[in-house]
Amino acid sequence: MTLLITFIAAIIATFLWYSNEKRDTYKLGTLSLIFWGASLMWFMDFVFEYAELRADYFQQEFADILNDSILGLTVVAIGLVAWLIILLIKDPKGVLKEKFAKKQ
Amino acid sequence: MACFIVPAVEAVAVTAAYFTVKNHEKKIALPKVSESTDFSSKQVKITWSKRLGWLMSLLWGGVLLLAFEHFWHGEIAPFPPFLTAMVSPEDTAEMLHEMATVGVSMAVFVTAVWGAMCGVAQLMVKKIRKTVSSEA
What is the pLDDT of residue B45? Predict the structure, then answer.
């Protein structure tokens, strides 16, 4: 579930990057790469686990699925926070710079 | 257990390479178009710092989120030795085996996807260059 949720987040972020003209301003490429990086790594993890467990991999308890889903959503939130921090540090629209300049 | 450490080591190396290449590119003052996505010039090119920036985002993004997943599952602790698998020699051996198999595969897979991404981008730039030169 974690892989699936991160994969969906990566697809949505890529769609936003593709469809938005201000993709460079809002660092949407970075956001999609964050989610793609995690998706690719979890995919590799899935391949190894599937090779070991085969069909049993998909026979999970409801509690495990729920736990994995909450983890997936938390991970997406952390990815978004990381992107927001990068955006605020780079400050492409100069909002923070202007705000601090006004105070001085 | 600690498979994300292998891509983390790669991420550190790529970050170092990124800053070295970026400084070098500043010195030789490449055309500004490489930083933006302005394809109106024949000189358009994707610099190595840009390419390494993509790999950096892929690796650091993945490492950050996987590290949190390990923390969630109690495989990382906020106190030494930080990795719970390092408490017993059996667990440490299993962790090293996982790093050598899953960890290395993760790093190789992400790098391979990045390589494909760079290849496709290079082909697209070539196509745009051709269009621009035929229009001029």
Answer: 78
For B62, which of A37, A71, A74 is closest by C-beta distance?
A37
Count of structural domains, chain A: 1
Residues of B whose CB is below 8 A from A35: 61
| Cα A83 from chain centre | 9
Interface TM-score (ipTM) > 0.95:
no
DSSP secondary structure letters along B53-81 = HHHHHHHHHHHHHHHHHHHHTTSB-SSTT
Contact partners, residue A14, CB within 8 Å, separation at least 6:
A32, A36
- pLDDT tens sequence across B87-120: 889 999 999 999 999 999 999 999 999 999 999 9
Say if A47 is an interface residue toward chain B (CB within 8 Å).
yes
Question: Whole domain around residue A86: which residue ranges?
Answer: 2-103
Q: A33, A34, A69: best mutation site toward chain B, by most B Cβ within 10 Å?
A: A33
Burial class of B113 by CB neighbour count within 10 A (0 to 12, 13 to 18, 19+): middle
Give the pLDDT confidence score for residue B33 in this predicted structure.
47
Mutate to test the interface with B, among A41, A42, A66 (most CBs of B within 10 A): A41
Q: Which residue of A has its CA nearest to B112?
A: A40
pLDDT for the residue numbered A3: 94
A–B interface: beta-carbon pairs under 8 A: 77
Residue A104 has pLDDT above 70, yes or no: no
pLDDT of B32 > 70? The answer is no
